[in-house]
Amino acid sequence: MSSRPAWAFAVVGAVALSALPTCRLAAQDSLPTDAVRVGIRYTPGVRPGLVILPGPGLDSVRAIIARDLDYSDRFEVVPVPVTEQGAPRGPRPVNYQLWQGLGASYALEIVPDPAGAIVRLHDVVGATVRDQRKFPVGTPEGAGFRLGVHRVSDEVVRWITGQPGAAASRLLMIEGGRVWMADYDGAAREALTGAGERALSPAWAPDGSRFAFTLLGEGRGPVMIQEVGSGRRTAVAGADADLNITPTFSPDGTKLLWARSNGDGTDLYSVDLARNCCVQRLTVGRYSDNLSPTFAPNGRRLAFVSTRPGLPQVYAMAPDGTGQELLVPFDFGATGPSHAPEWSPDGTAVVFHRELRGVPQLFVYDVAARRVRQLTSAGRNEDPTWAPDGRHIAFVSDRSGRRQIWILDLESGRLRQLQSPGAARLPAWSRRLAP
Predict the structure, then answer these.
(1) Is 190 exposed, middle or buried (0-12, 13-18, 19+ CB in 10 A)?
(2) In Å, how far are 144, 172, 260, 267 from 192, measured between CA atoms?
(3) Is residue 187 part of a domain?
């Protein structure tokens, strides 16, 4: 995912003066079932009621899944009445009439299993089991527990809607000069770079096992690729001199693109990652700066920011640098500079931030319709990044009084804040993560 700054122009100027295929879900063993797929059908735009049934054990699993399904913005999670919460927790038939009366269209039953958990999705209207699977989730103390439970949530979303959720993903962000990683809901925070380092422009590799970032030094900034698990780093060839920012991986993970800035300007370069060689210059910006590349998911086109029209705007070109043209229309009389483009997971849209009367706001560009739509208006909003479901966007806003990461659901307009101790910026959302 591309990294994206309005700040990049300030950084460039200062230096002159002194940047999964849909991943495989956790291994699952199908259980014998007489599930009949009848009853209600999921209708996009409608939020059916869903209840997480109480049961023995696995309370932490139920709590995480309930929050995941709420954050998916596809369901209304029906609260369990106090009488049911205190009921005996042995096996008993599902009271379809009760849950339908409380507004539930679906009921999720989670019971312990030697391998982890058995999850059953009940169609309350049809009074039948719609789907059931075994999932390995581990224990709350074990490594990968939360991510394993998030995968269960994503599969439940897929059972109902036909498309998996985005819970089994992670966010990178910059706080206090360091790269931090967190689950999509802001939990399980972990610092990935050192306290004495200054990092910029974090960007995920497609498989989520590595990320690229700028490591700022004295008068220069090389691009590094770091493994998430081991912390091992590799310097990117051709990105070790001058200032190198906004790296991004190609969708197949074979190339890295970034912007290099020196006394001659700021231009885009690419490198062959398998051999860490064969640097290719993609733009020639004698009178302009070019940065913040982002690939379309099919890898055939990329968007980037260029100052060639005077103010920064969003352009597009082929991955070899040919066919450069304005992508997002603009009006100097009504809009200002545009920054931080990122192509949507389905390739139909590009999100970016653009200044209106000097204040950055989020916009999305419909590629086929060639239409721009404004997404935000309150506070300063910038640096957007897509969730793997193509429905949610993470971005930085000061609407709460300090710079924090917020999540926007494009369909309902719902907003939620990810709480973090310090000021956050430059979020990057991963694809869905394989086990």
Answers:
(1) exposed
(2) 17, 9, 24, 28
(3) yes
pLDDT mean across residues, the chain: 88
d(CA 198, CA 264): 25
- Lowest average pLDDT, out of 258-262, 283-287, 398-402, goes to 283-287
Quote the pTM value.
Answer: 0.88
- For 53-111, the pLDDT digits (tens) are 999 889 999 999 999 999 999 999 999 987 776 655 666 789 999 999 999 999 999 99
Out of 130, 161, 192, pick the residue that ends a domain: 161
Residue 334 exposed, middle or buried by CB count within 10 Å (0-12, 13-18, 19+) = exposed
- What secondary structure, in 3-state letters, does 138-193 show? CCCCCCCHHHHHHHHHHHHHHHHHCCCCCCCCEEEEEECCEEEEEECCCCCCEECC
Please indicate, yes or no, whether residues 336 and 374 belong to a single structural domain of this protein. yes
- What CATH number corresponds to the domain at position 135? 3.40.50.10070
CA 85 to chain CA centroid, Å, is: 35
My answer on whether 156 and 200 are in the same domain is no
Range(s) of the domain holding residue 64: 49-161
Are 77 and 144 within one domain?
Answer: yes
Number of domains forming the structure of the chain: 2
Could you tell me which of 129, 132, 85 has the C-alpha nearest to residue 106? 129
